[in-house]
Amino acid sequence: MKRLHFKAALLSLAVVVALTGLLLGVRLEQQGTSLSLSGATPDVLWKMAGAGLFIFLFNLLRDWIDAARGRLPALPGVPGGISQLSELVAVRRLFWCFVIAAAIVFPFFANRGAIDLATLVLIYVMLGLGLNIVVGLAGLLDLGYVGFYAVGAYSYALLAMYFQVGFWTGLVAAGALAALFGFLLGFPVLRLRGDYLAIVTLGFGEIIRILLNNMTWLTNGPNGIGGIDKPTLFGLEFNRRAAEGAQTFHEFFGIAFNTNHRVMFLYLLALALVLATLFVINRLLRMPLGRAWEAMREDEIACRALGLNPTHIKLTAFTIGATFAGFAGCFFAARQGFISPESFTFIESAIILAIVVLGGMGSQLGVILAAIVMTVLPELAREFNEYRMLLFGLLMVVMMIWRPQGLLPMKRPHLELRT
Amino acid sequence: MTEPLYYFIQQLLNGLTVGSTYALIAIGYTMVYGIIGMINFAHGEVYMIGSYIAFIVLAALALLGLDSLALMLIGAFAISMIVTSAYGFSIERVAYRPLRGGNRLIPLISAIGMSIFLQNVVRLAQGSRDIAMPSLITGGWSIGPEEGFHATLSYMQLVIFIVTFITMTALTLFISRSRMGRACRACAEDIKMTNLLGINTNNVIALTFVIGAALAAVAGVLLSLYYGVINPYIGFMAGLKAFTAAVLGGIGSIPGAVLGGLLLGVTEAITAGYFSTEYKDVVAFSLLILILLFRPTGILGRPEVEKV
């Protein structure tokens, strides 16, 4: 029975009017100490009317729309041959080798801006992979991941500032300190249920940021820390002139000085860090520990019944995830040469989380692709920059409704009981 | 001699003022959690939208020349509550209803997306700068000696106490006496059973979101008048604080949310008054972590039994 849903349509129209009428239709203007109002541009008003009309018609003709949707042909799936081919270990290995080789030769053919962007992508890949351990594999929603990133960045920056520590020592120290923070935070909170954990970690991220902002005597507060040393290659610097007692890269190899060398070096360094991260995670996944993470995500009670200690397992996931954030933070500090608490807001956590979610929780290839999409798209669509966060929030909602398992969900050979 | 005493009373009053608005927002979290067991992450943004609507209404009334105080207040409350109710309703429809019954993390992530979306809608529509308004209600009573140091209870604070009290009473009556209130309580007990008994639980869930949003609007109007400054980012912190309050009191329990809100407000005010303003947020979150450590069910919460 198809009929017109007049009541529902009118109700939803009223809701749209209430939602948009005042908030979008009128704009507050500050005039001295008092406020005045100005109407929205006709453009916005037309959009509002369009949205209202769309919702009205959608609800009015719901039965017809549902029927039409049922008649739509299903999207063609991937042909069987290809999916079988991708299951082959040799093919997969070849694919990865190809990807890695392409990533290594990339900086020698690309321009400086592209390499810079690619380095940024790699930082996000590293963060995404780290958070993927916590969220995707262990199933713990961590909304304060950026806190560990900040710990890593500030560890290196502070050590470099006060003790003139170099990048490589700093990298180890940053990882260790972030791991320590992860351990200390994880110890009390990991006994909590999932959604509590989300909020506590969120609070933790905020605490870190507030502390960095306010401990001016140590961190220079909102002004941030500048002049952080760039990484060196076995003690070779990438400057025109070497510092006291050091040698520069171009002098050592007897080539002309080129500022691109440093950009390329930073890119390759980031790539090496990402590959190391991937390697470590893939090894961990085959260990009992990695299997326990996934088991814990699927069914905690069953795990406990099998004698696994949930707190220990979650704690390792949390700590290892934090360590990678620490590495990424250290690299970020070295690359930028300047850090301030501004770089470590909640939005950053949300972006990293979105990378994991978009890619498909637990899937590493998915995380890498999502990191590329999330970083490159805003660069390409500069004119939409203002709408970036808006679209980003919308994307998160739509993805959860449409494909909660992500674009490339992790596939595992598995059997399911039919009930 | 009595100066420290009056200073303390002042901090206490400030804390209770802010705390009662936290309580109003926290009720929204606690009711939604009590019924569907999910955290409405976008709730803080609803509060922020409530503040914006209040400012818009107040500015509009002032432009029209209707500047009687009672009219302005009633107008701001009424319109702000209507608009945020629509937001609460839509949030439930878009970000929660399609995802009910799956993995618990999925609605939480979609709600985070919703929260970012709403924040940016307001930022794009209204600008990201602070918007300030001269205070509507000025003056107050002094407690203690007229000369020298004394505590002040401003009329604005009094209005906050009175409005919060009226709202809470109305809510309590609604929950305990009305038919819909009974349905809400039944849903909190056992949602499947309630459904079997012929109650449209979808409506009840929508209603909880709407009530929560309307209460957040009340808090939004009150706090924006009290501080006099708003921007699109106030919702994040307020939401986080209110959630802390809800957990502190025991999530799922309405009296708990009120108690938690007041306690958090006072703790913050005392930290700000005796130590430093910058660290009051740190203290609030540390309090949250400590509570979850030693009493995960909160002050008035019931222990939850884990079922397979």
TrEMBL record, chain A:
It is found in: Cell inner membrane. It is a multi-pass membrane protein. Its main location: membrane. Pfam families: BPD_transp_2, DUF3382. The keyword Chloroplast does not apply. The chain crosses the membrane at residues 44-61, 94-115, 121-141, 148-165, 171-189, 196-212, 264-285, 315-338, 350-377, 389-405. Residues 5-106 form the High-affinity branched-chain amino acid transport system permease LivHM N-terminal domain. The keyword Cell membrane applies. Keywords: Cell membrane, Membrane, Transmembrane, Transmembrane helix. PANTHER family: HIGH-AFFINITY BRANCHED-CHAIN AMINO ACID TRANSPORT SYSTEM PERMEASE, HIGH-AFFINITY BRANCHED-CHAIN AMINO ACID TRANSPORT SYSTEM PERMEASE PROTEIN LIVM. This is High-affinity branched-chain amino acid transport system permease protein BraE.
TrEMBL record, chain B:
InterPro entries: ABC_transp_permease (IPR001851), BCAA_transport_permease (IPR052157). Keywords: Amino-acid transport, Cell inner membrane, Cell membrane, Membrane, Transmembrane, Transmembrane helix, Transport. The chain crosses the membrane at residues 20-39, 46-64, 70-89, 101-118, 155-175, 204-227, 282-301. It comes from Pseudomonas fluvialis. Belongs to the binding-protein-dependent transport system permease family. LivHM subfamily. It is found in: Cell inner membrane. It comes from the Bacteria. CDD domains: TM_PBP1_LivH_like. This is Branched-chain amino acid ABC transporter permease. Its main location: membrane.
